[in-house]
Design brief:
Layout (H helix, E strand, L loop, with lengths): L29 E6 L4 H17 L3 E6 L9 H7 L4 E5 L3
Parallel strand pairs: 1-2, 1-3
Length: 93
């Protein structure tokens, strides 16, 4: 029996990009949480939201959940994320 090895890397070259600027402060900022929908994400995001509000002055936190945990975020989520100051994605089991 022959063994076949697969290379999981992407064959195309990655496009060049510029990293987003870091905000000087998070006071009054809007953050979005994008969850993969698994149960363990809720507790982590709940705790993180409290810390962001209490310690860093984040004003608004938006919670969105992908429709499929293993697929990329839907277009509507990406459109809404354009209105946030920053986004945090998470997964949990």
């Amino acid at each position: 029996m022959a063994l076949r090895f697969l290379n999981p890397s992407h064959e195309a070259e990655a496009q060049a990009f510029t990293r987003a600027l870091r905000p000087a402060s998070l006071v009054g900022a809007t953050v979005g949480f994008i969850s993969n929908g698994k149960e363990g994400t809720k507790g982590f995001f709940t705790h993180l939201e409290a810390l962001l509000r209490a310690r860093l002055g984040v004003a608004e936190v938006r919670w969105l959940t992908k429709g499929n945990y293993s697929a990329p975020a839907e277009a509507a989520i990406l459109v809404e994320a354009g209105n946030w100051d920053f986004a945090i994605t998470g997964l949990g089991d």
